[in-house]
Design a protein that fits this description.
Largest sheet: 9 strands, mixed
Strand content: 15-25%
Structural class: alpha/beta
Helix content: 25-40%
Length: 437
Amino acid sequence: SCDPFPSEERVYSPCTAKAIHGGGPPFGLRQPCCRFSHVPGSTNPLPSLATHTSLTRNSLYGVRQPCCRFSHVPVPPTSVYEHTHRGRPNTPPPVYVIISRLLSTPRSGTQDATSRSVIRGTKLGGAALILAMVCLGSWYLVAHSPLSARLKRHLPRAARRLFVAKPSHPPRIANLPNLYLWAWERPEDLQFLGNSKVGVAFLAKTIFLATSRANSNATNLDAVNLRPRMQPLRVAPGTPLMAVVRIESLRGALPGAYSIANSSPASFSSDEIAHIAKEITATAQIQGVSALQIDFDATLSEHAFYRDLLTEVRKQLPPNFPLSITALASWCIGDRWLNQLPPGTIDEAVPMLFRMGPGTREISSYLAAGNSFTVPACSSSLGLSTDEPFSRDILSGKISVSDAPLSSLRVYVFSPRSWEKASADQSLKDLPSWHEN
């Protein structure tokens, strides 16, 4: 039969469909020669679309169209795609056909130049991206290595700040002011502080550790002497307050505190440590106090006791209550015993860069030469005084002791005399936090 296939009924004549799909090679197909009446106006020796339509319609009415012998009809060479997809206009061409057509399309000189510039730009962009990834990976690997620490010491501090992130305060103290004025045991009137941008760290209590070596292994709570603040303190409503507890160790209480005797430290029982911690945490109940600070110049023989005391204080404080301590400069440079504290025990250690004693010259030279504190707890705050040249140079910006700018650190300032607005303006005029007050 010469009936066309259903999918090609409207495209091919019955005999052409038979010749294409009935067999034979794709080129030089044998086409059937059918007898049909000449359609007026048609000059095509092969069946036309009109003839095919008339044949199809006649077939529908039961008129059988005879097929004659096959004759060889040369078919022009076509691609495999065109031969197999003829009559399927909605079928998308394969990818290889699209690529071959694009490659075979003639291009003008402008198109070639544009293509070359695009390819060149793509190569340069890819090379820059790879180089950036290599640099970032290398920086990440050596950021905390000993080699990096040695190299940073030879770079100017201004250049190092480009590679050092702004110090981040722990969550418990993140909302505290960046400037505190220490108010020691003397009458203080700080009502001139206008708002909450500047806080007051006031001495609230002094604890004297008077346990002697003879009874150091016994529980003797009466040997811990307390002295509350005796001088008035006046502040404006809303001023952030930090209670400071000073600990003094008397001769014989902890050997080595006021002597150079190489003797083992006296031990405190757990009950004594708990009692001292309770006296410290009681200052957190003072009205308006939002943070607590411990000031204890613990010697090497007292580190174990101080570590146990800080751990107990943290247990007795509310979970989100900030705990700060003052730190000797040597604790932040060479003596790294603060790293042995349980994580989260303290929120900051304030390096005391005044009243440093015999090591003042060495520490000042070390920091002025561009070196930084090596203990993480000491990296976000500073303790300065208005009456020492080294502190004044830091406050004025002449000397930088941190890779981070001074405006991102929490600064505690001590004055040997009672605070007055005029003297405070003169001493703190270069601090951004002071001008926000």
